[in-house]
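Deliverable D4.2, example record:
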Amino acid sequence: MFGYRVPAPDQAMLISGGKRGLAGAPFRVVTGHGTFVLPVFRKVRFLTLAMCEAEVAETCVTKQGIALTVRAVIAFKVGNDSESIVNAGQRFLSDQEQMSVLTGRIFAGHLRAIIGSMTVEEIVTERQKLATEVLDTSKAEMAKIGLSVDSLQIQSIDDGDTGYIVAMSAPHRAAIQRQAQIAQAQAAQAAAEAEQQSARQQAEYARQTAVVKAQYSAEVDQAQAQAAQAGPLAQAHAQREVLAAQTELAQRAAELRQQQLVAEIVKPAEAEAERIRVVALAEAERMKIQAEAAASHGRVALDRMLIDQLPQIVKEAAGGLAGANVNVLNGTDGLGEIAAGLVSQGLTILDSVRRGLGTQQGHADQNGERASLEPGQ
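Output generated by the structure prediction step:
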């Protein structure tokens, strides 16, 4: 926008031509935001707030009168507060590169003053102490011109051709060399001891290896001898086990064959014998039943036949009587007695025949029982 100005993050905008700034400064300070600036009536300038660097290479004389060339680097910048910006703007706004030149001169002066109160040994061995004293003495002067120092680094200290620093370091170098030689000798001794220890370990290892090999060889020989001795015993034991196994196998085969014979011959023979016995018993029982039935049928038939023939017998007896000279004394009763006598004789004859047939039937039953027992035997 026309008339609106904004400073960069590392800049301070200084506006002149209007009302005065802080503490009667001839300009207003604006940082971190923008503002309207009337053209022609206002003038805007920018002061850097970035980090700056100044180098110092100064020849200083020590307390001992020895000249030393000291090189240092100073890191500084304009302070962040408005007072420091105003002080730095009034001094360096037109030529901001003069900040590094002036800072180098200020530190060079303080460096000469502080080194003049110190010895070379102190300067060399206490370089940080020197930098701290220079910073402390320059802070107030730098603040007056609106600058603040962030750090001071002493890069080098050189005594030129005098060789003082070298001579000063000679005892230390000698001590260091002695220490290095001692350390080297100790290292060599340690190396020799380590080598000797290694040689002893190797010899011990070789000895133990030889012992182990000898023990191993002896154990191998012993094992081979035991194996040679155990060979025939093992073979005999193996043969014995084979024979035992064969014997057991033969026994099992015999048992199996016996079971087969029992199953194939004995069991069928026993079954056949049992069948014949059962058939014989059944046949004998059948014949007995038939004989009993025949006997019973014969008696019944005989009785029936005799009964049927009884009238004929009586008739024949009566016929015989008809030709005989028989006198009946008591009439009808006498004739009845004669008829009763004939019938009684017929019954007597029938009983005799029946007893005779019964005897013959008994003999026939005994013969039938013998016949029924012979097949079972």
